[in-house]
Write a structure and sequence with these properties.
Blueprint lengths: L1 E5 L2 E4 L4 E8 L7 E7 L6 E6 L6 E3 L7 E6 L4 E6 L8 E8 L13 E2 L3 E6 L1
Parallel strand pairs: 2-11
Antiparallel strand pairs: 1-3, 3-8, 4-5, 4-9, 5-6, 7-8, 9-10, 9-11
Length: 123
């Protein structure tokens, strides 16, 4: 499967952005999905994950209550709604997918990656 992330941009603190991940090549419904982010000089970190059916989700503690991960398998898309953004959310955001299992927060466990989209939150 090929993944393409989009929707990043520049927003003021407290604002919102919606990231999208479009999948092609194979039905996205067979993959568990996730979003990761990587700030300059830092390792790639887990943000949120969603099961293949969309019934289960999990979030990194700092984004709980502010970010919502969702998917539309009929459209082969996954989204990340980001509200109440903070300057520390500034990073390149990547979508990822893995078929084997749900719930892993380790980037190394994901087989497929989108190219990343820049999110910049100004204070």
């Amino acid at each position: 499967v090929q993944l393409q992330a989009s929707g990043g941009g520049l927003v003021q603190a407290g604002g919102s952005l919606r990231l999208s991940c479009a999948a092609s090549g194979r039905p996205f419904s067979i993959y568990n999905g996730a979003w990761f982010r990587q700030a300059p000089g830092k390792e790639r970190e887990f943000v949120a994950t969603i099961s293949s059916t969309g019934r289960s989700t999990d979030y990194e503690d700092s984004v709980k209550g502010r970010f919502t991960i969702s998917r539309d398998n009929a459209k082969n898309t996954m989204s990340l709604q980001m509200n109440s953004l903070k300057p520390e959310d500034t990073a390149v955001y990547f979508c990822a997918a893995v078929m084997a299992f749900y719930g892993t927060t380790r980037a190394a466990n994901y087989d497929y990656w989108g190219q990343g989209t820049q999110v910049t939150v100004s204070s």
